[in-house]
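Lab manual, section 2.4: Encoding a predicted structure.

Procedure: take the sequence of the chain (205 residues), apply the prediction step described in section 2.3, and record the output as structure tokens. A sample record is shown.
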Amino acid sequence: MGCLFYYVLTNGGHPFGDVPEREMNILNNSKCLDDLESKEALHLISKLLSFDASERPESSAIHLHPYFWDTAKTLTFFQDVSDHLEALRPRRTHPILKKLEQDARDIADMDWSLQLDKSFVDTQGRRSAYTVNSIQDLLRVIRNSKHHYQELSSTAKEEIRPLPDGYLAYFIKRFPALIMHTYNLVASETLKGEVDLCVYFSSTD
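Recorded output:
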């Protein structure tokens, strides 16, 4: 299935290369997924192509992957995670918060505010203080700005674009690894069992 997904998304490519090297690449677990455009697709197909079959997701779980989330679900996920992390904020040394901030520079550079439009940043600064090298605070910005979207200046709204699709695209274009970084944190920690978060990992059908 991983090979099929890759074939469709790359318009005919194969993750293990061309013949005659393909068979040897499969045996050596030597794959190249550079042609995938999104971090979500990269994560999903990497899992599907795991050399160890026990590490591959079951078919019933694949549709739960963030790659298949719509805009509303992704924004709600950011909001729910941010709400849960907010309760941990007084304990800044909490393992979950420390893990969230790992590789923060790769996700949002040293200062994520520099990647946002000034008019939008100025609006946020008037509402509350944020730490501009913190992933948790980046999630807070996404959450709070969504809640207070109508309070943004007309210039900020024009730059961010309308809710929900334009709004989410604005942030994902600048921080393409944020979804999977946050998802992997929740999936590997006790947060996965929280009532508001377990829906992202188990089917309700």
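Check your result against the sample. The two ends are 23 Å apart (CA to CA).
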